[in-house]
Amino acid sequence: MDVTRVNLTEATDIESDRQTVEIALDALRGLVTPRAFTGDTMLLNMGPQHPSTHGVLRLMLELDGEEVLSCLPDVGYLHTGIEKNMEAKTYEKALVMTDRIDYLNNLGNNLAYSLAVEKLAGLDVPPRAQYLRVILAELQRIASHLVWLGTHILDLGATSLLLYCFREREMILDIFEEVSGQRMMTSYIRPGGVWYDVTENFVPMVRRFLWYMPRKIDDYERILDENPIFIERTKGIAVVPPEKAIEWSLSGPMLRGSGINYDIRKAMPYSSYDHFEFDVPTGQNGDVYDRYKVRIEEMRQSLRIIEQAINNLPGGPYRSENRKYVPPPRSEIGHSMESLIHHFKLWTEGYRLPKGEVYVRTESPRGELGVYLVSDGGTKPWRVRFRTPTFWNLQSISWMAQGHLVADLVAIIGTLDVVLGDCDR
Amino acid sequence: MSGYYPPEFADILRENFPDAVQEVIEFRDQITVVIDRDWLIEIATFLRDTEGMKFNYLSELNGVDYWPQAPRFGINYIFYSFVHNHLIQLKIFVDETDPVVPSLTSVFPGANWPEREVYDMFGVRFEGHPDMRRILMPYDWTGHPLRKDFPLGYEEVQYTFNIDRIEANKPTPSADPPQTGTE
Questions:
Q1: Does any CB of chain A come closer than 8 Å to the CB of residue B114?
Q2: pLDDT digits (tens, 9 = 90+) for A114-155
Q3: For a Cys-Cys bond, which of A60, A112, A113, B129 suits A72, CB 3.0-4.6 Å?
Q4: d(CA B171, CA A180)
Q5: What is the ipTM for the molecules in this complex?
Q6: How many angstroms separate the first and last alpha carbons of chain B?
Q7: Whether CATH 3.40.50.10420 fits B8-169
Q8: Residue of B2, B26, B58, B62 for testing the chain A interface, max A β-carbons within 10 Å
Q9: Where residue A196 sits, what CATH number does that domain have?
Q10: Is A361 on the interface with B (CB under 8 A)?
Q11: Which B-chain residues 119-148 have CB contacts (< 8 A) with chain A?
Q12: Looking at the partner chain, which of A356, A387, A395 has a beta carbon nearest the beta carbon of B28?
C-alpha cells in the first residue's frame, strides 16, 4: 500500500474511512515517528499544487504544532519519460528532448548531451564553438540564478525583487532568441559545435549586458543584506555540515555553501573552461544565507568568464567539419554531390557511434549534471541517462527540514533551487 | 575529461579482491571495473577509506538494460574523490531471474533515491534499502518502463467524460514479482 493515499481529507475524516487510513499508516511505519500512530502529531500534505514548492513537489509533513518532525518528499508528478523517448530517436534528433529536462538550464542540457556524444564519437569541436558554448552556458547560469533569486525571495515575502530579476532575465532571453530563434527551448548547442554562427548583433548585446548587469547584482545585495526579515529567516536555517553534504552526494551551491571548494568547471574542465580565470565562491556556515551569498557571487564570476570569452572570441568555423557526423551547410548542397549524400544520410538514418559507454560531468546552475550514454553501435542511443542535480539534492530535504518550522520549509525548498522538470525528467 | 580515471586502481582492486573483480573495461580513458555483486559493500568501503584512493563521493548510480543479452541488467556506480580529484566506475551485472543487488545506502546515504529510481525503472531490487518504493512512476503502475521490452506507448489523458472507461480498462496492480513490461 502506498503513502500517497493519505491525504488531508482522509487523515481528518478517519471515522468515515477508517480502513483506508489504517492501511496507509501502516506503509508509513519507520518513516514517521511512532507518535503519528497515536494521533499525537498531525500528517499534512504540502503540495503538489502549492505556490512555494516551485512546481509539482509534494511534501508529506508530520507536524507537532508548527514544528516539522519528519518530511517525506514525493516526486514524479512531472515524469515525462524523456530518457525512454530519447532511445527511440537518432542522436541528432534526441537533442531536442534535452531542452525539456531542466527548463531553466536548456543550453546547459544541450551542452552536457553534446559533450557525451562527442566523447563517444571522438568528434572535434572548433575553438569558436567552445567559446560560444561557454558564453551561452554562463548566460544561462545567470538566468537560472535570477529565477532562483526572484522566486526564493518571493517565498520569503519580498515581491519587488522578483520583478527586477525577471527584467534582467529578459535581456538574456533576448540574446538566446537572437542566436537560436527561441527564448527557452533553444537546441542551439549541437554535437560538433553550435547550430549556426551567431549574428552580428550578438557581441554588442552581450557587451551591453555585461555593462548593465554588475550594478544590478549590487542592487539585489543592497536590498537583501540590510533587510532584517531576510536575515532572520535565512541565517542558521537548514545547516548542512560539510561531511554530511559529501555523504549525501549534494552538488553545486549546496556543497559550496558548506565550505567545500568544488566546481566541476575547475576540477575537471570541459569545453575550454580552463582558459578562463574565475573564483569558486564558498560559504562557511552552510545555511540558507551562505548559499544565497554563493549564488550571488557565482553570477559575478559568470560575468567575469563571459567578459574574457567575448574579448578573446576566436574566428573560424562554428561547427566541426567532420561530415560523417555534422550535416553540411545549405550552400554546399547545391553544388557538391557528397554534401547532398551526407545531408540525406544524416537526416534520415543518422550517424552510428562506436559501441561503448561514456559518462560526462558538467556543472549546471544546480550542481553536477552528468550524462551517461550507452551506444550499441546503432544510430539511436541504447540508453541516455541524465544524472540531474535536483534529483540528488532533493532527497536531503527529509533530514534538512527536521526540527524547523513550516515557514522555514519554504526557505529550504528555495535554497535547494528545485526545478521539478530536472528532478522528474 | 581524459586522465581522471587512474588505471592502477583496477590492479589494486584485483590484488585485494581477486574473487570479486571479473573484468576491467577501458573505453575512452574511462576505467570500469566489473565486480561480483556480493562484494559491493566491501569494495565501496575499501575505495572510500584507503589512503591514496579516498573515493568519498558517490557521483552517479544508474541502471542499463542490455536485453536480450544474458546477464540482463548492468548497475553502474561512479565514485569521485575530493582529495585526489579522480574517478572510478564499478559495474555489476545481474540477471532477470534474480534481480537483487545489495544496497549502498549504508556506506553512501545519498544512494537512497537513485536506487529507488533503478528499482522503479528496471525492477532491480536493492537488499537492505530502507525505503524500497517506486519513486517517479505512480504507485499502481505495472511494469518497469525503461526495460527494453516495455513498449513506448502513451496514456490517454483523463477527463471527467472518459474517466469511467479508462478506469475500467486499467490493469490491476500486482504486488510481486514485478512484471516485465507488457500490460
A1: yes
A2: 999 999 998 889 999 999 999 999 999 999 999 999 999 988
A3: A60
A4: 44
A5: 0.83
A6: 42
A7: no
A8: B62
A9: 1.10.645.10
A10: yes
A11: 130-131, 133-140, 145-146
A12: A356
